[in-house]
Amino acid sequence: MKNYTLLIFLVIFGITSCSKQTAGKPPDFSITLDWQTGSLPQHYQYSYRVLIGPLPGGELHYTSADKSKQLTESFTVTEEQLLELYTYLVDRGALRSNWNKGDPIDGGPVTHILIAAGKKKFFIPERSELAENERSLVDDLVAEIRSVVPKPLWEEMNRLQLEYVIGFENNLETE
Questions:
Q1: Contact (CB, 8 A) for 114 and 122
Q2: Could you state, in order of their start, the residue ranges of all structural domains in the chain?
Q3: CA distance 118 to 148
């Protein structure tokens, strides 16, 4: 009986020690995603920031190019969503400082991601500076982060940006 107990203990210890350390999401886990359109005519430019964590919750901040249209909305993020997002980042190797750089590309959106976890900060460099395989990982990370923000908030942001573009174009026609 003693041998079976020892065997069960060793199996359980082996399984838990080999698994990824995501079950213990750090209490300081948070993400900041800054995104902007990049080089486009002014009336098409805008930016947004998504803040998630460390407590369950998040915020979406949107600003048009001239700051005449703005949106700041809070949203709920459950502990389960935070754990899923943390696990996603760990599984994809995003909690690191060494990102492969590539030939810089001109144009396109500008993306900055800052992740805090376990009293460490991980800055993901601008997507246009990264190697192609790293760019696709960043695109996936952005999509995953965006998925935590409720769809109605994205719809409201898009509505405000469309209002901004239409207003800008209408002003051009009257000049």
A1: yes
A2: 23-174
A3: 21
Read off the DSSP letter of residue 22.
T
* Residues forming a β-bridge with 137: none
| Distant-in-sequence, close-in-space partners of 32: CB < 8 Å, separation ≥ 6 | 49, 50, 51, 112, 113, 114
> Across the strands, what pairs with 164?
none
Q: Which amino acid is at 3?
A: N
First to last CA, the chain: 91
Closest by CA to 48, choosing from 140, 129, 145, 122, is 145
CA distance 90 to 97: 13
Q: What is the pLDDT of residue 104?
A: 81
Residue 20: what pLDDT?
A: 41
Which residues lie across from 62 on neighbouring strands?
48, 71
Q: What pLDDT, on the 0 to 100 scale, is given for residue 71?
A: 96
Average pLDDT by stretches of 10, the chain with 175 residues:
50 41 80 92 90 93 94 96 96 94 84 95 93 93 96 96 86 66
CA–CA separation, 43 vs 45, rounded Å?
6
For residue 97, which of 128, 116, 121 has the smallest C-alpha distance? 121
Q: What is the C-alpha separation between 51 and 149, in angstroms, rounded? A: 10
On whether the 23-174 domain is CATH 3.30.160.340, my answer is no
Place of tokens 């709920």: 76
pTM of the model: 0.81
